[in-house]
Specification:
Thioredoxin reductase; 8 helices; thioredoxin-disulfide reductase (NADPH) activity; about 300 residues; 2 domains; flavoprotein; seven-stranded mixed beta sheet; FAD/NAD-bd_sf; about 30% helix; five-stranded parallel beta sheet; FAD/NAD(P)-binding domain
Length: about 300
């Protein structure tokens, strides 16, 4: 069994950022990563100072190289579970012993079950206008969904284009919502959606069940966020009314020695935000370990 000060579960921006800080603090740190980042379908990421336009895979590759350069161990694999005392079991049979655990396993996006949605996700079916709005600025855009959140999303997307339509699909908009949409020249296309239409590997529009076709260059949707929280749940971490792990500003959970960062803690965190959360968690974890080291030294004295 290998022993570490910290095992980081998840090797995205949050996990690698934390591992970098901890390795530079001369902590023994291991990062276990399943190799399935949430933003893998996206060709580029945006809004990350000095790295705007980077391919997500290139950022992760650079981060892994930096962590390894300071002695951090990178393990490609899946965590089967974490036993009391922080024995991290991997699915390949290996086991890691940790003084502290940081969970940065992200989340899953639950998307509408419509033809074309999965295939275009992260390409021209988009979620975050701050991440992709500028790239589709001034083009004919759509927002899919009839919830209050979808209406808010349409109002937000309107910042990037004067030509925005909302497709409520199977939802119902209130008179007040329609009035607000009309006030900013956001059109409403009622009726169930059949599919996203793709021509030559490019989204061309939205087809409704009644056969109508509405040309659009990109479609925005607000998915349902589901945390990848098996480890947190198994460790008994408290959750809030939405089902997300409760943590303080540094990512400390209700279970002593367990931290959380990135999209596993905040579903709206962008890449740069997740990296910052990882850094903050690492600093707090190191301080916690120092306090532990002091107490151990006093006990031995």
């Amino acid at each position: 069994m290998s022993e570490y000060d910290v095992v980081v579960i998840g090797g995205g921006a949050a996990g690698l950022s934390a591992a970098l800080v901890l390795a530079r603090a001369r902590r023994r740190v291991a990062v276990v990563d399943a190799g399935a980042p949430r933003n893998a379908p996206a060709a580029h990421m945006h809004g990350f100072l000095s790295r705007d336009g980077f391919a997500p895979r290139d950022l992760l590759a650079a981060g892994r190289e930096e962590v390894a350069g300071y002695g951090g161990l990178l393990i490609d694999g899946l965590v089967a579970g974490v036993d009391p005392g922080f024995q991290v079991r991997l699915k390949d049979g290996r086991s890691l012993s940790a003084r502290r655990v940081l969970v940065t396993t992200g989340l899953q996006d639950e998307l509408p079950d419509l033809p074309g949605v999965r295939e275009r996700w992260g390409r021209d079916l988009l979620h975050c206008p701050y991440c992709h709005g500028y790239e589709v600025r001034d083009q004919p855009l759509a927002v899919l969904g009839g919830t209050a959140e979808a209406v808010q999303h349409a109002q937000l997307v309107r910042q990037w284009s004067p030509d925005v339509l909302i497709f409520p699909h199977n939802g119902m908009l209130t008179a007040g919502q329609r009035e607000q949409l009309a006030a900013r020249a956001i059109g409403v296309v009622d009726g169930p959606v059949r599919r996203l239409v793709v021509d030559d590997d490019r989204l061309s529009g939205v087809e409704l069940e009644d056969g109508r076709f509405v040309g659009r260059a990109a479609v925005f949707v607000r998915p349902r966020f589901v945390p990848n929280d098996d480890v947190l749940v198994s460790l008994g971490c408290a959750t809030d009314e939405r089902g997300w792990a409760v943590s303080d500003d540094t990512g400390r959970t209700s279970v002593a020695g367990v931290w959380v960062a990135g999209n596993a803690a905040d579903p709206r965190a962008q890449v740069i935000t997740a990296a910052g959360m990882g850094s903050a968690a690492a600093i707090a974890i190191n301080a916690d370990l120092v306090a532990d080291d002091v107490q151990s030294s006093l006990t031995r004295a």
